[in-house]
Every structure is written in structure tokens, then in C-alpha cells.
Amino acid sequence: MILKKYNFSIIGYPLNKPRSVTLWRNFFKKKKIKHRMTAIEIEPKKINFFLKNFKKDSSFIASAVTMPFKEKIFKKVKTIDKITKYAESINLIIKQKNHIIGYNTDIYGFLKSIPKDYKNIMIIGFGGTGKAIYKVLFNLKKKTSFYVITSKYHSLKKIGNSRSIFNNKIENKIIEKVDLIINCTPLGSNLKKEWIKKSPLSEAQLARVKKKCFIYDLVYKPEKTLLSKLAKKYKLKYENGLQMNTLQAKKALDIVLKNLKLNQT
Q1: How buried is residue 186: exposed, middle or buried, by Cβ count under 10 Å (0-12/13-18/19+)?
Q2: CA distance 63 to 225
Q3: Are 20 and 253 contacting, i.e. CB atoms less than 8 angstroms apart?
Q4: Strands 78-79 and 145-149
Q5: pTM for the complete prediction?
Q6: How many C-beta atoms surround the C-beta of residue 145 within 10 A?
Q7: For 128, how many CA atoms within 13 A lie in the half-sphere containing its CB?
Q8: pLDDT value of position 58
Q9: Distance of CA 241 to the CA centre of its chain
Q10: Which of 49, 188, 232, 238 could bridge across to 225 with cysteines, CB 3.0–4.6 Å?
């Protein structure tokens, strides 16, 4: 049994009732670990100050990390696993001796949630998570082609390669050939009122999608979105990001618990 009381957090800006707080608290309660798990909003300009305090505070062991810090903190911490290195982005930091170690359990949850066999992937949205997913899949799936839809495509031509095409619009000839579509945009989510009634794919586009295509949507709040309803209408395989979020939290907590035990020895 772990007796010492530790501090945990999730950091981001802004934060909107992050699910991790409840998941972590329930986990600690089940394991009979005394803890303090809180959501901490940090202005981007103060992130270095937070990391400095995190490293100095002996009671502060781990923190979940969300936007806009996933890529920024990656550059400031030590990474030890292949997936995190590929992603160049983290969503968990733990303290081991004199080091802050970063992990990307988001990608772990994602990889566990998608089908294994696909030749052509479309990624819609190239923010922090979309970029991390692309980098990991590109490195793991050497025979897969990628079609990335992003408004930033002009500046991304530099990272273009023989297996990747970047564009700012979804072309019919592309959507008709993909096996996996991944929505990495917030469209359909409740993060902003104007996003709830939107979909990254139109009904006309979904009508062209292959029947065996799998649509993976990172959005899970609300559980039913316009995209999910349209996918159901056209009898397409669809999954939202709830399982990914649950699996990544479980993986993160497994890492945290292992680290807690190390701190007791």
C-alpha cells in the first residue's frame, strides 16, 4: 500500500472539465492511494515556471498534459519509448529522480482503437493530435499512403514525400479510395457552440466513401455527432474517441502506479 500523499494534475489552457480528473481520482480511490488530483489552467507563457516547480516539489509525481502544451513540453523533457519519439508530442509527464519523462499514451489508445489493415489513410486536421497520429503511423506503416487535409497545407509541402499528399480540400478521387478516415478536427464537439452542428465530411462526401472504410472520430463529447449520424445513415463503420480516451488514461495510470512504487523503494 502506498502511504505517502502525492499531488497530481492535468495541465492545459483552457480546460473544460477534463475527464482525466475523474478517471484518475477513481483509480486512486480504488488503489487506496492518498492523493490530490486537480485541473490546472496555465497560461502558455508560464509553462516553464510550472515545469521548474514540478521538478522541485517532491510531492508532485505526475501530470496529464493537454493542449496547447503537448508539443511544447515534448522539447523540454526526456523520452524513452519509440511511439513518443515518433509522435514528437506528449500527454503525460512523470518525475523519476532528477528527470522529467514524457509519454504519449494518446497514441497508445488510438492504435488500440483502429483496425490494423489499411493501405490508404485520410487524416482530416493537422493540429497537435493530427500531426502526432500522422508521424506515428507514417513511421509504423511503411507501405501505407497518407492524404492529409489541412488549411496549413501550403507550409507543409516541405515535409511532403512519396507516400503523403497534403491538401486543403477533400477530393472525390481520394475519398473514394481510402480505407481509414481519421477526424482530428474539433468539428462536431461541444468545445465551441458553433462546432456542435458541423461535420468534417459532408453528406455528399460520405456517400462516396467505400462501404468497407472505417471512420474514426477523435471527438467523444457529445457521444453522438453529425458525423456519427451520417455514417450510420450510409452504413459505414464508425467509432468515436471515447475508447481511445479511456485506454490512454488506463495506460497513463499504469505508468504512474509503476512510478509511485519506484518512489517508495
Answers
A1: middle
A2: 30
A3: no
A4: unpaired
A5: 0.88
A6: 18
A7: 16
A8: 84
A9: 9
A10: 188
pLDDT at 89: 95
Q: Could you tell me the three cell numbers for 123? A: 487524416
Q: How far apart are CA 201 and CA 47, in angstroms?
A: 35
Q: What residues in the chain have per-residue pLDDT under 70?
A: 1-4, 153-160, 262-265
* H helices, E strands: number in the chain: 11, 12
Helix (H) or strand (E) holding 208: none
Per the CB < 8 A criterion, the answer to whether 226 and 237 are in contact is no
Q: What is the pLDDT of residues 104-128, one digit of tens each?
A: 999 999 999 998 888 999 999 998 8
Helix (H, G, I), strand (E, B) or coil at 148: strand
Residue at 36: amino acid letter? R
- Is 187 in contact with 181 (CB distance < 8 Å)? no
Q: Which cell numbers in the block locate residue 39?
A: 485541473
Main-chain dihedrals φ then ψ at residue 54, nearest 5 degrees: -60, -45
Query: Looking at residue 2, what is its pLDDT?
Result: 46
Strand arrangement of the beta sheet that strand 6-12 belongs to:
35-41, 6-12, 60-65, 92-96, 99-103, 78-79
Using CB atoms within 10 A of its CB, is residue 211 exposed (0-12), middle (13-18) or buried (19+)?
exposed
Check residue 44 and give its pLDDT: 93
AA identity, residue 172 = N
Q: Which residues contact 187 (CB under 8 A, 6 or more apart)?
A: 195, 198, 199, 200, 219, 227
What's CA 48's distance to the chain center, in Å?
Answer: 22
What pLDDT does residue 212 have?
A: 94
